[in-house]
Design a protein that fits this description.
Largest sheet: 5 strands, parallel
Strand content: 5-15%
Number of helices: 13
CATH architecture of the largest domain: 3-Layer(aba) Sandwich
Structural class: alpha/beta
Distance between the termini: 51 Å
Radius of gyration: 21 Å
CATH class of the largest domain: Alpha Beta
């Protein structure tokens, strides 16, 4: 039951060691709840409990909560193996009107996060923090809905899969990135980093919105394109159609970000490609830039493709769909992102199947 990220000790000078009762979920001082025990939420939950962080867990249903109480949680893969029994796991509604938390980590799917976010206000202590880590611009959306004083921005670069409820595999050495939506540093971001950093690697950013958009740019291109053609990036980028769709989708999303005053933060690569918006004049540099992305993401099976296989709704409306809608408001049309969004909806509805021919259709569109 080890974790390569559990090297931080103590909660800092603002936290006083108190008696801990895991069974009653009595934390030292920062009382934390994780909502959404899917792939990423499950990995964080398991590693937190194995590290001795007394987080409470909120599931969607009573059946899932009962199963996790009986079977416990198990994580394997990068970071080592861990097995634990949660001290407190209930369906979310059972926490209402009886619990108050200083931190709520919201790790559900994007559409569920927006639906449930308002009700979580009743679970926060007066100075409590809500930390959403969904794909797309969900943290910004929730911040606009509830207020920046409540919401701490976040994103996850943790690779994770859930084979069944309570059984998870961490597939990379990724991290959580957190920061204030308004920008800059803050004491609360540091405190959350200290708490969750005992479980997984947590970094802070003074430009979390830029970081969210850096990931969104890659979600709009790498993830969605791979899903609709049922290929990894390393496979589809070898075709002329794949390269064209990738370049157009990425360029449109970047143009929308720049038009709204957002400056994406460097993540895996510099978010602005060499020579942008005319990369043809810098072909060799641009090819090297694409190669860096392929090196990082080229062999990963898109999570959206896994949603297709499991007959689950995707987060497309918060990724390419969000870029399309925002582009309309700032006068930056995003036709390829719109076509990708429509293609994903058609696949979700069973009208078409994902496959390489979707690339040819997108180029024509």
């Amino acid at each position: 039951m080890t974790s390569t990220h559990a090297q931080h000790s103590g909660y800092g000078h603002n936290y006083k060691e108190l008696a801990l009762s895991q069974a009653n979920c009595q934390p030292r001082l920062m009382r934390a709840l994780i909502v959404g025990i899917g792939a990423v939420g499950g990995v964080v939950s398991t590693r937190a409990l194995c590290a001795g962080i007394p987080v409470c867990l909120a599931t969607r249903t009573k059946e899932t909560a009962a199963r996790l109480r009986t079977s416990g949680l198990r994580v394997s893969g990068v970071g080592g193996e861990g097995i634990c029994v949660p001290g407190e796991v209930r369906p979310l509604e059972e926490y209402m009107d009886r619990e108050k938390f200083d931190l709520i980590l919201l790790a559900t799917k994007a559409q569920d996060a927006l639906d449930v976010s308002s009700s979580l206000l009743d679970l926060l202590s007066p100075s409590g923090t809500l930390l959403p880590i969904q794909n797309g611009a969900v943290p910004q959306m929730i911040s606009e809905k509830l207020g920046k004083d409540i919401v701490l921005g976040g994103l996850s670069n943790l690779g994770a899969t859930m084979t069944e409820p309570g059984v998870y595999r961490q597939t990379n050495g990724g991290h959580l990135l957190i920061g204030e939506i308004r920008g800059g540093s803050s004491q609360r971001a540091t405190e959350v980093q200290r708490l969750l950093g005992k479980a997984v690697e947590v970094r802070t950013s003074p430009n979390i919105v830029g970081a969210i958009w850096a990931k969104l740019l890659l979600n709009c291109s790498v993830t969605t394109i791979g899903a609709v053609c049922a290929q990894t990036m390393r496979q589809y980028i070898m075709s002329d159609e794949g390269m064209q769709v990738f370049q157009r989708a990425y360029d449109e999303a970047l143009g929308v970000a720049i038009a709204t005053g957002i400056r994406p933060q460097r993540m895996i690569v510099e978010p602005i490609p060499p020579g942008w918006p005319h990369p043809g004049m810098h072909r060799e540099d641009y090819s090297a830039w694409v190669s860096q992305i392929v090196e990082a993401y080229g062999d990963i099976k898109p999570s959206m493709l896994q949603d297709f296989e499991r007959k689950r709704l995707t987060e497309i409306d918060f990724i390419n769909g969000h870029v399309t809608r925002l582009g309309m408001t700032v006068g930056k049309p995003a036709p390829v992102n719109r076509a990708l969004t429509e293609t994903v909806h058609s696949i979700e509805q069973g009208k078409i199947e994902p496959g390489p021919r979707r690339l040819r259709e997108l180029v024509v569109a």
